[in-house]
Amino acid sequence: MTNRRMSARRITMAATGVAALLAGSFTMSQANAQTPTFTPDVLSSQAAVELATTLDDTLSAETAGTFYDAETETLVVNVTDSSAVSEVRATGAEARVVEHTLAQLEAAVEEYAVPGTAWGIDPVSNAVKVTVDSTVSGDALAELQATVDGLGGQAVLEQVEGEFSPYIAGGDAIYTSGARCSLGFNVTIGGQRGFLTAGHCGSTGSSWSATSGGAAFGTLSTSVFPGSDYAAGTYSSSIASPSSVNLYNGSTRAITGAANPVVGQTVERSGSTTGRHSGTVTALNVSVTYPQGTVRGTIQTTVCAEPGDSGGALFSGNTAHGLTSGGSGNCSSGGTTFFQPVVAALNAVGATIP
User: Fold this and answer.
1) Could you say which of 100, 182, 200, 309 is catalytic?
2) Could you write out the DSSP letters of every residue in 122-160?
3) CB-CB contact of 181 with 270 (8 Å)
């Protein structure tokens, strides 16, 4: 996604005082002529969230869910009555007429409150997404599938491997031979469960585990560094991998989408060495030069980080922004940290969140 506020001149940081945040020692890897009748407001992800929270108070029409379209940078509001379109558009959001009301979808949800299942109302598909783990099988699974089929387009069923249990989330420590980094975000790659981390953390083909010396949960299929700094892998074990970030206070934050941040925006970072810290975005499309080479297009911030935080999640609210790349300073005195934009990484490997 192109940043509309981007300076024409990219900023290049010298290697002096800037280090890749990697714990352990190992070898680094590598105009439309016609004016449309309505143009929705272009919003940052945070501004879209703020607008969405006010809609229940400002709209007289009942909505059927909202979502942020990261490609068009607009807030989309589902309505079931075309007469509500003009009212929604008056707020700057885009209106989409759908079939099912939230009340209908919420009523359908009650069908799935059984062990081994998870559900959520997906505004994009305007349906209830029912997820079942491997403990739901045989007659129970057949009955659940029949119930979903009976509801037609109001619900969809998805099966996942393993059993719902403690998990590895964004910001958690991950280990490979001789090194520790942090997981960035759990994603879907070609229909398979996958994860993102920093490219300088490991090479393509390297195996990763949730504990030092533990059984591998996945393998990197892509690793790019320098130039960019991202890596993607797929899970080979049944370990649960929700789309969430560890907040290091006993809770997690759900991640429901990805977008580029804006300068001046407050963001948070989660990493396995220093936990969660916050700061401000100070520049975009920054080229930073490390001893190993230059990484281009990074997000520069005042968020602190330290060795081992590499690959960890940069986010705001429920939106993913970046993967921790490198920087200077520490979390005692403060510092500057650079992040690989997650949107670029997702596009490069053909991944989606969640």
Assistant:
1) 200
2) ETTTTEEEEEE-TTS-HHHHHHHHHHHHHTGGGEEEEE-
3) no
Q: Is 310 a catalytic residue?
A: yes
- What are the residues facing 74 on neighbouring strands? 69
Is 41 noted as a catalytic residue in this protein?
no
Which residue out of 133, 172, 229, 309 is catalytically annotated? 229
Please list the pLDDT of the chain residue by residue as tens digits (354 residues): 444 333 333 334 444 344 455 554 344 444 344 445 899 999 986 787 678 767 867 888 778 887 878 678 888 899 999 989 999 999 999 999 999 887 887 777 554 545 666 565 677 788 876 766 777 788 888 988 888 888 888 888 877 554 433 345 568 999 998 789 999 999 999 999 999 999 999 999 999 999 999 999 999 999 999 889 999 999 999 998 999 999 999 999 999 999 887 766 789 999 999 999 999 887 666 667 676 777 888 887 889 999 899 999 999 999 999 999 988 778 998 878 889 999 999 999 999 998
Q: Which of 310, 316, 321, 325 is catalytic?
A: 310
d(CA 339, CA 334): 16
Q: How far apart are CA 201 and CA 179, in angstroms?
A: 8
Residue appearing with tokens 């300068």: 263
